[in-house]
Structures are given as structure tokens and as C-alpha cells.
Design brief:
Elements lengths: L6 E4 L2 E4 L14 E4 L3 E5 L10 E8 L10 E2 L3 E7 L1 E6 L2 E6 L3 E4 L5 E6 L4 E8 L6 E2 L4 H5 L11 H7 L21
Antiparallel strand pairs: 1-2, 3-4, 4-5, 5-12, 6-13, 7-10, 7-12, 8-9, 8-11
């Protein structure tokens, strides 16, 4: 039977530093901010990564994509918790609003972009197979939203670096007090 994980305070919030079960509030967990891709929290730490399932909460402003347009060999699912978004999926655009759910089977090109007049909050969940592969296609549609790779590549670091994107900063976003879990 697994023991309770040990959580430690970091510069941006709590992170697990050992394996095991734990409970943490979204407002207390570690956050990262990216100028191009909004902000988000992950519920895992460097020393205690989830092996089977990734889960995070993302916050984007209108016009900000969650990440670069991509497809992978793992299933992902997204639930818009608040606000409005535009889903780019297999070369098409679809509007999303609060409580819309997007099921994304393996091999589906996709990215979610903030839309509307305010912040959008998106819960993202994804499988983590051992042999996962990812591709970042160059896409004219995604390029219009600042979410395309410069050239098609299977290397995430190359995709983000060539598109001019730095690593995120581990801090809370400037709009922290506008979020529902802010204390």
C-alpha cells in the first residue's frame, strides 16, 4: 500500500518530492508562467512524476495558445472550466466555452487557444505511454494563432526553440488574484 507523499514548498507553490498519494489545492501547488503560452500548474514534481497520467490546470488569455500545435501517440482530454477558447483540430477551428469537453485520440493534431474577453481555464489530462512520440507539424492555421512549429519536427525542444520560445518561469501569474482558487 502506497504511503503519503511528502510535499515541499517551492518558489511557486507545493510540489511532491516523494512517491505516494497526496492532496493539494490548485491554489497551493506549483505554478509556471510562459509569456506566449499562459500559465499553469502541475501536480507532480521532478522527483515524483506521474508515470501513467499527466494532469494540469492551464490559464490562457485571449489569443494565447496552451502550447504549440502538435499530435502524439497518446490520448489527451481537455475540459474548459471557465472562459472561451478556440480549438484547432486537424486543420479546423472549433469554438469552445465553459464545460465543453474535447476528447483527443492519439494521432490528432490539436491546440487550444484562449478567446473571448477574459481568462480561460482548461483542465488537461493525458496518458503517458512509455514509448510516446510527438510531432509538431508546421501549420498555416496554427501559425495565425502563434502556435505553429517553424518546420515540422518530432523534437519538442527544437520546435519551441526554433519558434523563439524560452522556458517558463516558476512563479504565479500576474492575474493570480483574479483566479477562483486565489486566497
Amino acid at each position: 500500500m502506497p504511503d503519503e507523499a511528502r510535499l515541499e514548498e517551492t518558489e511557486s507553490g507545493l510540489k511532491p518530492v516523494s512517491e505516494g498519494w497526496f492532496v493539494v489545492n490548485v491554489g497551493e501547488t506549483g505554478w509556471a508562467v510562459h509569456d506566449a503560452f499562459g500559465s499553469g500548474c502541475t501536480f507532480e514534481g521532478r522527483e515524483a512524476q506521474f508515470k501513467q497520467l499527466g494532469i494540469n490546470v492551464n490559464v490562457v488569455e485571449p489569443g494565447q495558445p496552451l502550447c504549440l500545435y502538435h499530435e502524439e501517440t497518446a490520448q489527451e482530454d481537455f475540459l474548459v472550466l471557465a472562459g472561451e477558447c478556440v480549438l484547432l483540430v486537424n486543420g479546423e477551428e472549433r469554438p469552445l466555452r465553459a464545460w465543453d469537453f474535447f476528447h483527443c485520440p492519439a494521432g490528432t493534431e490539436h491546440v487550444i487557444v484562449g478567446a473571448g474577453d477574459g481568462l480561460a481555464i482548461v483542465l488537461a489530462v493525458g496518458a503517458r505511454p512509455e514509448d510516446e512520440q510527438i510531432s509538431y507539424p508546421r501549420s498555416e492555421l496554427a501559425e495565425r494563432y502563434g502556435a505553429s512549429a517553424v518546420e515540422t519536427t518530432n523534437d519538442p525542444q527544437e520546435a519551441y526553440t526554433r519558434a523563439g520560445h524560452a522556458r517558463p518561469r516558476h512563479e504565479r501569474p500576474v492575474y493570480w488574484n483574479d483566479l477562483p482558487w486565489a486566497e
